[in-house]
Amino acid sequence: VTAKKMPTLHRHEEEKFFVNAEGRKEPVPSIHDRPSKELSVVVPSYNEEDRLPLMMDEALDYLEKRQKQDPSFTYEVIVVNDGSKDQTTKVVMEYCKKYGSDKVRLFSVVKNGGKGGAVRMGVFSSRGKKILMADADGATKFADIEKVEEGLKNLQPWPNQMAISCGSRAHLEKDSVAKRSYFRTLLMYGFHFLVWFLCVKEIRDTQCGFKLLTREAALRTFSTLHIERW
């Protein structure tokens, strides 16, 4: 209703390349290419040098174990550095060297553009048949990816190969309310009411970082992204 035209998608010349584990520049893949991985994990990061290692350790431990159990399962973890001013780049490059650039990649934006823009860059540079958005804070247990995978599977048949499965914390709401201040609880319910009243009545925003998309759904969704901030 409010969008006047399609968003202008522009990528800086420096953002068309990434530095691999050996320190060499490689061209960034495109979502328009044929997928070569089963799963791409996109992690937007801004000043996350402290929280990112915990998330990366848990994610890579899970993904490596899963690959050993099923050699046909292939993955990549894409960390998008959204103009961090701390040591986020250095932290991620240590994982690139440990696991190799085929499994862990660091893409950096020239100028901080916001979480939405960072996720889009990672999605557009992914090689997976399925693409998972995951937050750098590790607030969601990574093994719970199996729940959103099950949700995606249950949506089949996918119209035009498009489907999206979003993680939910609705079942934890009573516990979280008990731990919140009255003011935060009031804000939460007020926000839920506005979403219900102004937008959609069947969907509740439960603030979970996990969102799993098919490749085609990711292309269609992020090609029309207008809001690039958080």
UniProtKB/TrEMBL annotation:
The Glycosyltransferase 2-like domain covers: 40-217
Major localization class: endoplasmic reticulum
Q: Which top EC class applies here?
A: transferase
Q: What is its EC number?
A: 2.4.1.117
Q: Gene3D superfamilies per the record?
A: Spore Coat Polysaccharide Biosynthesis Protein SpsA, Chain A
Which pathway does it take part in?
Protein modification; protein glycosylation
Keyword Transferase in the entry? The reply is yes
Reaction equations catalysed? a di-trans,poly-cis-dolichyl phosphate + UDP-alpha-D-glucose = a di-trans,poly-cis-dolichyl beta-D-glucosyl phosphate + UDP
Where it sits in the cell: the answer is: Endoplasmic reticulum membrane
Tell me which GO cellular component terms the UniProt record holds.
endoplasmic reticulum membrane
Q: Which keywords does this chain's UniProt record carry?
A: Endoplasmic reticulum, Glycosyltransferase, Membrane, Signal-anchor, Transferase, Transmembrane, Transmembrane helix
In which family does this protein belong, per the annotation? Belongs to the glycosyltransferase 2 family.
UniProt protein name: Dolichyl-phosphate beta-glucosyltransferase
Natural source organism: Cephalopterus ornatus (Amazonian umbrellabird)
